[in-house]
Sequence to fold (269 residues):
Amino acid sequence: MTYLGELVFVGLGLNDDLGISLRALEETKTADHVFIELYTSFLPDFSIKRFAEISGKTPQTVMRKELEEESGEVILNSALVGKTVLLVPGDPLIATTHVALRILAEKRKIKTRIIHGSSILSAAIGLSGLHNYKFGKSVTIPFPDETPATTPYRVIGQNRKLGLHTLCFLDIRAEEKRQLTINDALRELIRIEAEKKENTIQDDTIAVGVARAGSDRPDVKAGGVKELLLHQFGMPPHTLIFPGRLHFMEVDALITLADAPEALRRFSE
Fold:
């Protein structure tokens, strides 16, 4: 295929402007056009000014409307006239928005490449000490004033019946500087439990809260839901995990690395 342009999706990592890989930085330095989206996730300590100093490029910020409602036309048009980089929080293709943009680009004969970055998928699981191959379907818990958390509640229950862990992303509205917190997500799931009464989320149901993964000050706390509701996780981004059946090494990890109570040992296989 003869390509008419080039679009490179570049992962920024999880926390600040130093999370970008050397390869990704070189791709950015050699780009003709650089865009950045900061609405799919929070990068708490990211500075566009500092990024411009290390990369020699001042990226143009694109909002949700430009990528989703307008199908990324401003980026695709730039890619047709010069090498274009789209900077994305975390790993570039975790968000379905970026997958859709890549498909559109390829259909227009724009060559696409991916420079991967650190992902919350691996970071949150790694910080928890749980085994990554024991995770089932992941789910996003929405803001309660927008959509009831019925689907997340059901997915957590289905995974637990299979003995699998559930990684829960928490909804984000970066333009409004809002992200659902671990505590609010738990309260919403408790509300759904009161309606459904399926014994999926109880006071003693084990959960793991992860705050600020990828930073030098992450907070990881495991324990019963009631216990986590009393914990102050601080600033976002937040992620929530509901474990399924636990291997004895996973139990040891939760106690040692996530301050889980010693009583958790009675749940190990």
